[in-house]
Amino acid sequence: MDLPVDEWKSYVLQKWSLLPKSTQKSFPWIPAGSCYLQHCILFRPEDEMFLKRLSSGYLVGKDPGAPLFYREQGNKKFQEKDYMGATVLYTKGVSHSRPNTEDISLCYANRSAALFRLGQYETCLQDITRAQMHGYPERLQLKMMLRKAECLVTLGKRQEASQFISDLESHFTDRQTLAASQFQILQSTLCRLKRKVQEKENPTETFPAALTTGFEDMNLREENEQISCASSSVTLCTDPLKGRSLIATKDILPGELLVREEAFVSVLNPGEMPPRRNGLESKWDTRVTNGDLYCHRCLKHTLATVPCGGCSYAKYCSQECMQQAWDLYHSAECPLGGLLLTLGVFCHVALRATLLARCEDVGNVTRKLCGEISNRDICLPKSKNLVQTLSHDLGRESEKNGETVEPPVSGCDVNGRYESNYNAVLHLLPHTRNHSPEHKFLCALSVAALCRQLEAASLQTLTTSLKSSQPEAAVVPAMCQESHIWGPAMLRHMLQLQCNAQAITIIQQTGSKENIITDSRQVRLATGLFPVVSLLNHSCSPNTSVSFVSTVATVRASQPIGEGQEILHCYVGDDVLSCGRASCTESASRDHLVSRLQDLQQRVGKAQKLLRNGKLTERAIQLLLGCQHDAESFLSAEHSLVGEIEDALAQAYAALGDWQKSAAHLRKSLRVVEVRHGPSSVEMGHELFKLAQIFFNGFAIPEALNTIQKAEKVLLVHYGRGNDEIQELQKMKSCLLDLPPVPEGP
């Protein structure tokens, strides 16, 4: 959820309606520093208590009863041979456990067993090490040590395996603490493993060779001297009406990499995290969320996360990632987990961006925040343009050198270079005048509440650090002593995000792996700020495609772009019915259309659920055909929901074996994807892959081979040859080419 929860929004809206008209009228036009002080004054103790009640509904602390509950639930899944489900539940148990306790060691050990059954041997070894590090009971060591030996042997680590087996045999034989039955199991297992070590020559788990050569085009061939993270094929321009933009400096071919940028800041989307209610099942949620499967810092997919030692919410792919997050921002965020979930992702991103600013030139950032923000359009109707502010500084330098220097584009440094850093983030436009007073008041009060809690948490941290003689723990208090600076910064970032936030997406499989046709959809994994990607202006007819690997965004040309043309990207979300361009149809009754859209989305979701369950396919088709008819009456043919309906109909007819109808509907979905994302986009690649599957299963050999070639061409650009879908396409092609020729008729 980008914005705060509905309860807080309603509360703030009511508070706004009770303010005197004079206060409402003057609210948007107060300078930033004074504006923040007024926000703090307006944030009353009763507001704080209300927000505290909302925040307390989220279980983000370490609950001492949770590890046993999750371990038992995980054991049930393990017995049912649902090892993936067991892994996630053990992970939840790990997250609620305190470090160096039997609880956490048992959860790690159990998770290692599930990972072993999933064939994740390296990760299994990591969990075994973690279990031992946290004091796994000696009485239970045998089974886990045998599992470790199995992993070493299976991975082909012959020397290490031989030494470990020898040590294991000596350890348990010398101690003579095993029962006769256990000793017999030990001896037979070790004998079997010794034989396997002697026979083993190559490891079972290898890194695909294709992956080492499949990403030769993942880096920029020639980086831009003016813009970091951008290709030399583009340049940065500014226009009085359109603002900043990227322009092609030469003819660009489809698939060419234009931008490769790591997010300055990103926050994992929490997904559905309803507040807890009475009752055990609702208190300890067993549902799988992205927060259980992805690192909260680098967004890497992992089955074996490492939890924060202070909360149960933040999880990481490794100890190193956890420590980096703690040093950069999580030490401040950790005690605020429930509040951040209540205030929404935008507020969280705004806080984290401000915390990350500490890692750059703090003095310079502070000067900018004090001087420039207070004079920007964040509050003043007649604000001074930031380019003028910067050119004023440059002017003094130019006079000294006796030269006339053109002022740089907003966000550039004094040398005119645009870097992917906090200076660029600071200069992203908040478009304050486009926000309603109510929205600005909601953002302002939310930021004031966050600053108030930061101050309270920092005071406690400072007291603790003084008692323990740890001055390094006082970094957050130092920041909060300048809350009159950082408060307006957070407010600015929260307003910027409405237009500049980038949804970090992944293609996620939603159906069963047994489905004949891949059932996947694009889902938002996180929200981030990419200063260079933000230079791309919006178009309903984009010429680029954006894809993500962890926190890195790559922008590629999705069609030929001529020299001098603007580089454009479509960033209108699925919840928007029309954009602000004159060429787009503007709705006269937006609220009514939004209601119709939400109703249609619910019906489509119901049909998709029927399809995922593998039952009542005919009923799902009837529902989807009705949705298709309704969509035609008020949605454009290129709306994403129209494509989603056609994609679902293709899935349904494929399940019935009607390949001709399935292909017809998927072609309609392809047209939507091509219009929205471009012919060389990663989204287009995934849809072409589905179409290739349909033609393959329907024995439409020429169509299948043609579609396989198109899908391979697109997906290779984005993923390299190690991608699962590319490998499946190659198998399908080999199979079709190996078929005997169809005899010609008489």
TrEMBL record:
Question: What is a single cellular component term in the Gene Ontology annotation?
Answer: cytoplasm
Looking up InterPro entries in the UniProt record yields:
SET-MYND_domain_protein, SET_dom, SET_dom_sf, SMYD4_SET, TPR-like_helical_dom_sf, Znf_MYND
Q: Which CDD domains does this entry report, sorted A to Z?
A: SET_SMYD4
Where found in the cell? Cytoplasm; Nucleus
A GO BP term here is: methylation
Give me the reactions it catalyses. L-lysyl-[protein] + S-adenosyl-L-methionine = N(6)-methyl-L-lysyl-[protein] + S-adenosyl-L-homocysteine + H(+)
GO molecular function terms here? histone deacetylase binding; methyltransferase activity; zinc ion binding
SUPFAM superfamilies, A to Z: HIT/MYND zinc finger-like (SSF144232), SET domain (SSF82199), TPR-like (SSF48452)
Q: Which residues form the MYND-type domain?
A: 295-334
Keyword vocabulary terms for this entry: Cytoplasm, Metal-binding, Methyltransferase, Nucleus, S-adenosyl-L-methionine, Transferase, Zinc, Zinc-finger
Described function: Protein-lysine N-methyltransferase. Monomethylates PRMT5, modulating its transcriptional activity. May also act as a histone methyltransferase. Plays a critical role in cardiac development. Acts as a key epigenetic regulator of gene expression during cardiac development via its dual activities as a methyltransferase and negative regulator of HDAC1.
What name is this protein filed under? Protein-lysine N-methyltransferase SMYD4
Encoding gene per record: SMYD4
